[in-house]
Amino acid sequence: MLSRHLHTHTHPSSKRPSSRMSSTKLPLAILLLLSGTVMFGWIQYCAEAKVCPLFCVQAEYMTCNSTAGERLNPVCNCCFAPGGDCTIYLSNGGKLQCA
């Protein structure tokens, strides 16, 4: 019986990836995943943001239903009023009802 021995030779460039290369893939994948999560959260936050006009009324004080009518320092306009249930009392005696 003839026995043949096959010898296989591998080319140096066909070596398996080193463990160092493999170990950098996991942190990179985690970093990309976390970055995507943060960006998605920021986009959601920006989508829910309120755009307010940049003008201020001349006001003395304001009251809000949530504070049982307590006199508060006035905000620039109704857009900045907390909860939207406030009244801004103007310097000229008028009032601005925030809805």
UniProtKB/TrEMBL annotation:
Keywords of the record: Protease inhibitor, Serine protease inhibitor
Keyword Hydrolase: no
Region feature (Disordered): 1-21
Gene3D superfamilies in alphabetical order: 3.30.60.30
SUPFAM superfamilies: Plant proteinase inhibitors (SSF100897)
Biased composition (Basic residues): 1-18
InterPro entries linked: Prot_inh_I20, Protease_inhibitor_I20
GO MF annotations, alphabetized: serine-type endopeptidase inhibitor activity
Superkingdom classification of source: Eukaryota
PANTHER family for the chain: SERINE-TYPE ENDOPEPTIDASE INHIBITOR (PTHR33832)
Family listed: Belongs to the protease inhibitor I20 (potato type II proteinase inhibitor) family.
Name of protein: Potato type II proteinase inhibitor family
Species per Swiss-Prot/TrEMBL record: Musa troglodytarum (fe'i banana)
Highest classification ranks of the organism: Eukaryota, Viridiplantae, Streptophyta, Embryophyta, Tracheophyta
